[in-house]
Design a protein that fits this description.
Blueprint lengths: L7 H12 L3 H29 L7 H13 L6 E4 L6 E4 L8
Antiparallel strand pairs: 1-2
Bound molecules: zinc ion.
């Protein structure tokens, strides 16, 4: 009958795993951390692209606003359809522009 007492090596391994918070959970935790990061990045993108901006219901309204800005020395604004709110926003970054 095998001894039920864990070998010194097994005890060592357990202690090491416990130090790391357990191997089982290591990859889960890394995955959660990545998810958190992605969520925060997405939130920042939303804040920058949508929440912090004036919203226009139509492309025409957004273009009118851009034109009004151009009259007040703020030239080079483009408009884009927002993937978050489906409204339109102004941007000075033309690469965001969608037609
Ligand atoms: Zn938006």
């Amino acid at each position: 009958m095998a001894s039920r007492k864990p070998s010194a090596k097994a005890r060592q391994r357990e202690a090491f795993a416990a130090d790391l918070g357990g191997f089982d959970d290591l990859f889960d935790r890394e995955e959660r951390r990545q998810d958190d990061l992605a969520a925060r990045r997405e939130e920042a993108r939303y804040e920058k692209a949508c929440a912090s901006k004036n919203r226009y219901a139509t492309r025409g309204e957004a273009l009118d606003a851009a034109a009004a800005c151009a009259d007040h020395c703020r030239r080079g604004l483009s408009v884009y359809k927002c993937p978050y709110c489906n409204g339109w926003h102004l941007t000075s970054h033309p690469w965001k522009t969608e037609r």
